[in-house]
């Protein structure tokens, strides 16, 4: 499940920031702004992720090789609720010379896709897509706001430096 944003006017801000700071710093600031912008979506996904009401046992049959040998090593483990919520995370990503932030579910909670999309037997209980749909405009606004702050700060810093050099030459 991939979600993408297209932000109008971003190229102008990016050019302004690129002219003021180094490429590495620009990428870092862009990732920081993306991380800040994705916060509402991330929080809602975690909050709406389904959770078992109480602890339960998960039963394991052991490996096929052990079962064929007559030693099944059946076992059970007590699982506490909230595994899915604990395994929702964000990560900074570098893609094709650019940067991005991804919200993903760790492999330990692989079953999220069955909950999100449903199966022939289980009714779908989407919790990722609704959070994205509800907060995408807010995320774009937050990104523009944070990136604009970075550009303003860089302009102010450059003005101070230029003024400082002008004062020294007089």
Describe this structure in words.
This protein is an alpha+beta fold and 170 residues long. The chain folds into 2 domains: 10-49 and 85-169, no CATH class; 52-81, no CATH class. The protein is 55% helix and 15% strand. The protein is built from 6 helices and 4 strands. The chain has helices spanning 10-20, 23-48, 64-68, 83-86, 112-117, 129-169, and strands spanning 56-60, 75-79, 88-95, 98-105. Strands 1-2 form a two-stranded antiparallel sheet. The protein has a two-stranded antiparallel sheet with strand order 3-4. Helix 1 packs parallel to helix 6 and helix 2 runs antiparallel to helix 6. The chain is elongated, with a radius of gyration of 24 Å.
How does the SSE layout of this entry go?
Blueprint: H1 10-20, H2 23-48, E1 56-60, H3 64-68, E2 75-79, H4 83-86, E3 88-95, E4 98-105, H5 112-117, H6 129-169
Antiparallel strand pairs: 1-2, 3-4
